[in-house]
Write a structure and sequence with these properties.
The complex is a heterodimer of chains A (about 475) and B (about 575). Chain A has 22 helices and 6 strands. With about 475 residues, chain A is mostly helical. A 4-stranded mixed beta sheet of chain A has the order 3-4-6-5. In chain B, a hairpin with a 6-residue loop joins strand 3 and strand 4. Chain B starts with a strand and ends in a 9-residue tail after the last strand. Chain B contains 26 helices and 9 strands. Chain B has about 575 residues and is mainly alpha-helical. The chains are: A mainly alpha (about 475), B mainly alpha (about 575). At the A-B interface, helix 12 and helix 15 of A face helix 12, helix 14 and helix 15 of B.
């Protein structure tokens, strides 16, 4: 080992960890100022509610509010442990901090294992901490987030440890992540299969064959017709979710991609040892783009490593035009910073915002009853301990519900709509500005918005900043 | 008597015998000397000597750290005189049309409004209360600042009608420089410069529309010229970067340049030609700087529209209209027959047989234009402008080949006649179509009757009223009538502009008064202008109009010209 590729020393590690903590603080502090510390994204509220339920009544595999089976998820258990240890809301942010710092540690271990210059290692960690994926880890609660450091750690173990013990440990970690989400299940299988072929390890192949049935049975039995191809029905197309700068929920930064391309070109000549598994693995990894949000979350870390190589390649390259060199490198740095700050700002302004939260607080104070709103609001509504007619899971589990909800939203026949509302037992309507701006309706007075004028059927009990709660008089009072 | 030129050296430089600085003459060098020579009599004048004494002090008493060197006067090269004449001819041609009318083409009124706003507030109008009834505008205001600054110094006529045409005519000089760099033939370069002054589609688009492309096109080709030279003259890197930055700040079509450079690098790599590090570095810089700049400037619209922002939210009806009249013959006539033929031949010859890298650069640019046109990412007219201008330096190369072949052929004694015939062909294939398109462009400007209608709207309608008009008239409503419009050519950050276009067509053509009222109420329209809608929809009046709900409020008498209806009925719905 030369001085050039010496491992990061203690001071450097401390600095990087400090930077990681600072980058974690960026979106978190923003959320505190803008939304009173509420995590980003409605899906976070599902995880939070399940964690609180585990705390209250223990892990039962049953959703008390929606009265449906829900797979036991290691992330919910982890979050429950954090809430027990630190209380709410500190427990929420300690959970995200733990996941974030674990991911940084995993990336550090990953770069230590590869023969890279010290600068590239440090840059890789810095790029990871400044990436949209890392900021997403910091600001929201999703089971797949826990998978990031665990999967990276498992990859490090597979890469560095050739012994059976190391492979067993890696397989155990991957097996654990398979219960986090369908994406993690497929990713875990792909990693085990790829590692078994690359390392020519019969042990890993055996573990893979043994491991497959368990999560499959688990998902099938408990989640019913839960669709593994759920992400295909995502509202935004794949292209819209690939680049952060084009509005992706979690995407790659355009300059990170550019640097990664530069890094790939720079290392092209060095070449990799030939292995026939490389190409199929590359093709399989592209298939994961069907789960585009998870794809960008998980593939950002390796991309940052390659991008770090790209930065070094550009820095060390012999430039003929000095002015062009300096300005180009400055612009690339500014571009990376811009992506980070832009994403952090967007995070800060993401739903749910105080308007959503105050409306939900009002909803929580009303007598019990089934609430109809857009599926994106389902988990937020359930967080108030009110059952939602459709949420992010139900729209895939129960297609009929999704169709009925659409019929109610778009119908202009008052009698038919009353009948549907009574038949489904819907007591409340929750309407937010996003629903009026194209989420559900494209223009004023469309569908249900026109019918709301009927005071006999609909009574407005809350209206603030575009958030409205309507009581439906066609349904029974409680469910 | 030999007139002397005085060159004032800076105080830090001293003339030491035998150590005078030597400069390598380049193509540009003659022009400043020419101008200096032309100003020579002024240097000698009494007034100049007084001014010089005021600033520099008495030559007898000031410190001897400023030396004056006499240099013999140079002859102005003939080709520079011809170039100057071509520039003036181009300018005269343009001004002959532009100054015929004080009006601009409809799309120019957006720029006019911006210029007016910058003059009064020093800031562009980003929050427009009138366009689409009120919206945020996202655009690059640099060109509007240039016009506003010019209008502060010069009269509005010079700033808004002369200056854009001066900028557009400057493409003549740039094309001459570029073609000379490629061909090293003065005759070919001058012919190319002459052709560039009369690219029909370029004349039409930049004549009286306050179009940013009047500056953008010369800048892009100046960049190409500097890019070719930077490989050997590294000191041109700084001006190259300045030109690129200016182009990127002016208009998003600078992205065309980046794409062209990428294609060039790819072509050079594929052909295994010697790669220049300087060119690679500039390409890299162009990619990162333009990308970064556009992500900052257009962040809002990128987040609003996502990847579909590349189509600029232009409704399908408008996009298909842009390309519906396209055919190869029409495109060739808009670009110019000779540039197309000679340029294509030169591209083939210098790519396939001689493999000259500068030709790959222009080819890369042409490929980029084709790609963007094919994906409908740029309007047809803009694509044809860049296509036409790219073919002209190639024409110069082709023309030089033609002259060489002519000189070696048996008909060499008729070369003067052949050259004259070529000139005639240039006039017929480029100048005459330019004339025709220039007249057509003038015809698009608002008429006196339309101005009168807009004035009436401005003076007789409430300030926040919304006026229905066609897409073409949108900017006229906001700029001249100063009222809200329903639609105009700025589609970015607008929700469902295609729906609006359909609704507007429906209002103008439906015979159902209920339908018309519903749509008018949906957009809050109070007044309906029937002017260009007559030709667009083939109507004499709105079919659903009657005196009760849509009385004519202007003009009082029936006329064939524009008229305005007022909506006086409301539609009520019950559940």
């Amino acid at each position: 080992m030369t001085a050039e590729n010496a491992p990061l020393n203690g001071k450097q590690l401390l600095l990087l960890l400090g930077f990681a903590a600072l980058m974690w603080l960026l979106p978190v502090s923003g959320r505190f100022f803008s939304a009173g510390g509420a995590p980003v994204d409605a899906d976070s509220y599902f995880a939070l509610r399940m964690a609180k339920q585990h705390l209250a009544i223990g892990p039962t595999g049953w959703d008390v509010v929606q009265q449906r089976p829900v797979p036991l998820n290691p992330y919910h258990l982890f979050l429950a442990a954090m809430l027990r240890a630190f209380g709410e809301p500190a427990g929420i942010w300690m959970a995200t901090l733990t996941v974030s710092l674990l991911s940084v540690g995993a990336v550090m271990l990953m770069v230590q294992g590869i023969s890279l210059r010290t600068e590239v290692r440090a840059l890789a960690v810095v790029l990871w901490c400044a990436s949209p994926a890392y900021l997403r880890l910091a600001a929201s609660l999703e089971p797949a987030h826990l998978g990031v450091p665990v999967v990276l750690l498992a990859l490090v173990l597979l890469y560095r440890s050739r012994s059976s013990a190391g492979q067993l440990a890696a397989a155990a970690l991957i097996f654990l992540t398979m219960f986090l989400s369908p994406f993690n299940f497929l990713l875990g299988m792909a990693i085990l299969a790829g590692a078994a072929l690359l390392l020519s390890s019969p042990l890993l192949l055996l573990l893979l064959l043994l491991a497959i049935p368990v999560p499959v049975m688990w998902y099938q039995q408990i989640a019913g017709s839960y669709s593994l191809l759920q992400p295909l029905s995502a509202a935004r197309p794949v292209t819209g979710e690939l680049l952060t700068d084009l509005g992706a929920t979690v995407g790659f930064g355009i300059f990170t991609l550019f640097l990664a391309a530069a890094g790939l070109l720079a290392t092209w000549k060095r070449g990799l040892p030939y292995n026939p598994v490389h190409l199929p693995m590359l093709l399989v990894s592209l298939l994961f783009m069907f789960f585009i949000r998870r794809f960008t979350l998980y593939f950002t870390a390796p991309l940052c490593i390659i991008a770090a190589m790209g930065i070094l390649a550009l820095w060390l390259m012999r430039w003929e035009l000095g002015a062009v060199r300096n300005i180009s490198l400055l612009i690339i740095t500014c571009g990376l910073l811009f992506t980070t700050l832009s994403y952090a700002t967007r995070n800060v302004r993401s739903d749910p915002l105080p308007g959503d939260l105050s409306a939900l607080e009002t909803l929580a104070e009303l007598p019990g009853g089934l609430v109809l709103s857009a599926p994106e609001n389902g988990f937020l509504i359930e967080h108030t301990a009110r059952p939602a007619y459709v949420d992010g899971m139900l729209m895939h589990q129960d297609e009929q519900r999704a169709l009925t909800a659409d019929a109610i939203f778009q119908g202009r026949n008052l009698l038919q709509t009353r009948e549907l509302l009574a038949q489904e037992g819907i007591r409340y309507l929750y309407i937010d500005p996003g629903m009026r701006r194209g989420g559900v309706w494209q223009r004023e007075g469309q569908g249900l918005l026109f019918l709301l004028q009927d005071a006999d059927t609909f009574q407005n009990v809350f209206s603030e900043n575009g958030h409205e709660i309507w009581v439906v008089n066609a349904a029974p009072a409680t469910r | 008597m030999i007139q002397a030129i005085f060159i004032n050296l800076s105080p830090l430089e001293k003339i030491v015998p035998g150590r005078n600085p030597v400069r390598v003459p380049g193509c540009l060098d003659g022009i400043p000397d020419t101008l200096r020579n032309a100003a020579a009599p002024i240097n000698q004048g009494f007034l100049f000597r007084c001014v010089r004494m005021l600033f520099k002090g008495n030559p007898l008493t000031r410190p001897m750290d400023t030396a004056w060197v006499r240099k013999p006067l140079k002859r102005i090269p003939r080709e520079h005189l011809i170039l100057g004449a071509i520039f003036l001819l181009s300018l005269a041609f343009r001004l002959a049309f532009a100054l015929q009318s004080p009006a601009f083409s409809p799309e120019g009124y957006f720029a006019l409004r911006q210029v007016q706003h910058i003059r009064s507030t020093w800031l562009p109008l980003y929050e427009d209360p009138l366009s689409y009834g009120g919206r945020i505008l996202v655009f690059q205001p640099l060109f509007h600042y240039v016009l506003a600054a010019a209008s502060l110094v010069f009269s509005p006529v010079i700033a808004l009608q002369v200056l854009p045409n001066v900028l557009a005519s400057s493409v003549v000089i740039v094309v001459y420089l570029l073609t000379f760099e490629l061909s090293r033939s003065t005759e070919a370069s001058l012919t190319a410069a002459f052709l560039s002054a009369f690219v029909p589609v370029y004349v039409a688009e930049t004549l009286n529309s306050l179009s940013v492309h009047a500056l953008m096109v010369p800048l892009l080709f100046l960049f190409i010229y500097l890019f070719i030279r930077v490989k050997k003259e590294h000191e041109l890197a700084t001006p190259l970067l300045v030109v690129l930055a200016t182009a990127a700040l002016l208009h998003p079509s600078a992205f065309l340049l980046v794409l062209g450079l990428v294609f060039y690098i790819l072509l050079v790599s594929m052909e295994r030609l010697e790669r220049s590090r300087a060119e690679l570095e500039v390409t890299l810089f162009a990619i990162v700087s333009v990308l970064w700049l556009y992500f900052i400037l257009f962040k809002r619209i990128l987040l609003f529209h996502g990847p579909s922002v590349v189509w600029q939210n232009i409704p399908l009806q408008v996009l298909s209209e842009h390309f519906s009249g396209f055919n190869l013959l029409g495109a060739v006539s808009l670009v110019g027959f000779l540039p197309f033929v000679f340029g294509s031949y030169a591209a083939y010859r210098f790519i396939v047989t001689e493999r000259r890298r500068q030709v790959y650069l222009l080819t890369g640019f042409v490929l980029a234009v084709f790609l963007l046109l094919g994906m409908s990412l740029i309007p047809l007219s803009l694509g044809l402008i860049y296509l036409g201008m790219s073919l002209i330096p190639l024409f110069g190369l082709g023309y030089k080949l033609f002259l060489v072949e002519l000189g070696n052929s048996k008909v060499e004694r008729f070369s003067a006649w052949i050259r004259a015939g070529m000139l005639l062909l240039v006039v017929i294939s480029s100048v005459l179509p330019s004339l025709g398109l220039a007249f057509e462009q003038l015809g698009k400007a608002p008429t006196r009757e339309e101005f009168a209608a807009f004035s009436w709207l401005r003076e007789h309608t409430p300030v926040g009223s919304t006026v229905l008009a066609t897409l073409e008239e949108g900017h006229l409503i906001t700029a001249m009538a100063r009222r809200k419009n329903l639609i105009d050519g700025n589609f970015l950050m607008v929700d469902r502009p295609g729906q609006r276009l359909d609704d507007i067509e429906r209002i103008y053509t439906t015979s159902s008064q209920t339908e018309a009222l519903r749509l008018l109420q949906k957009y809050g329209v109070r007044y309906v202008l029937v002017s260009r809608a007559k030709g667009l929809y083939g109507i004499a009046n709105i079919p659903s109009a009657d005196d009760r709900c849509f009385p004519r409020v202007y003009p009082e008498q029936d006329t064939d010209g524009p008229f305005i209806l007022e909506r006086r009925c409301e539609l009520e719905e019950s559940a």
